[in-house]
Amino acid sequence: MMATGAATHSYVLGPQRAKLQLSLMVNFFLLMALYSGVLGVLLPNQIAELDEGSKANNLALLFAITSVFSTLTTPIAGALSDRTRSRWGRRSPWIAIASLIGSAALFGVSWMTSFWSLMVLWVMATVAYNSMQPAMTTLIADRFAPETRGGVSGVVGAGMTAGLTAGTVVAGYLAGERVLAYGLFAGAIAASCLAFVAINREPPSDAMPRRPMRWGEFLKGFWISPREHPDFAWAFASRFFIYMGYQAVAAYLLYILRDYIGLGNADSNIAIANMAIVTLIFLVISSLGSGWLSDRYQRRKPFVILGSLIMGCAMVAPLAVPTMQGMWAYAAIIGVGYGMFMSIDMALMTQVLPKSALGDEGKDLGILTTAVNIPQIISPVMAAILLNAFGNDYRAIFWAAVLFVFGSALCVFPIKSVR
To answer: Membrane topology type, per the record (predicted)?
Structure first.
């Protein structure tokens, strides 16, 4: 049974809503597991094996180049999905086809023996997965009524945050079996996305009015004026700052354990997996609890602000205690803060979108997703510059991360259209 919302929306109810919500959670769980396992463990290990002396700079270069493609791909794919007309709907073709292409490229990465061949295939995988992700995210705006999105965002956020942890755990324990690890991530996301499309049939879009492709108008649509849409701009800034801080630490976590804490290669792989288990426990509790409370009280901003502040406190722990005890504290506190932020962030983003009669949610959410992708370009490069400037002292990264995540909290206060 469906309830019709805006002209371009069919809001799901009852069992269909529960099924779609659970399916989104599983898909985002696997996608985030892939990202965290590959970016946080498998690629850093593979790059270090290829050239130990240049591992930090090469990792920063890989993040920077692939994130440029991610940043360009996400809003364009979102905009094209808005215009897609098929009997499978607007979003489903992008989810199914892109997942297959991305998984094929990702599995190929496991066989690469040079940095640049690895880079090419990982770029291909990144472009494909970033063509799929905005379509999945936009389904929350397409299919769920605004007053229910806090709960949906909480469940999906719990899946995402649990996936970030689970991916690190799996990759940490399978780091010595590279082909198996890459194949597991690639196969899981492809199978899940195909099942998602088959189980959750999207309303056909082939009868919707077709929008002529005028390239000037198409490209102009990617500019959303901060003056005309200030809440959208503040939400973008908040997301940008928090991911600048979070990515700076997350991208170098394996090297932090080795070069800042002093663990060996094997011990650091096990430690990063065990830390992820600790984080997982706090992430799931925080995500589900925050999403439920957010819908109950119809408040988004307080949870996003508090989550940002808690994340800042987590970054301080390894500075105060530069041992594994400090890292355990970081793992637990970051779980609470990041879980709270991610569970509500998605609901908040869907409620600051510019109003459009054309159905541009995919494009607009794609633009907001670039607030995650751009830090993937900048933050690893920033971290590498800080390490070079401060004699490989990882404390500089933590201090920068604290400033960014606290800045994210400040950007939420001016948002007026969401409470």
So the answer is: Multi-pass membrane protein
40-44, 190-194, 248-252: which has the highest mean pLDDT? 190-194
CATH topology of domain 11-203+229-412: Growth Hormone; Chain: A; (1.20.1250)
The structure's pTM equals: 0.69
**DSSP readout, 323-364?**
SHHHHHHHHHHHHHHHHHHHHHHHHHHHTSSPP-TT--HHHH
Question: For position 31, what pLDDT does the model report?
Answer: 92
Q: Backbone phi, then psi, for 3, in 5-degree steps?
A: -115, 130
Find tokens 């920077």 and name the residue: 64
Report the alpha-carbon distance of residue 37 to residue 34 in Å, rounded: 5
Name every residue whose Cβ is closer than 8 Å to that of residue 6 and which is 6 or more positions away in sequence: none
Classified as helix, coil or strand, 85 is coil
Q: What is the CA radius of gyration of the chain?
A: 20
Q: In whole angstroms, what is the distance from residue 298 CA to residue 17 CA?
A: 19
Q: What gap in Å lies between CA 241 and CA 259, rounded to an integer?
A: 26
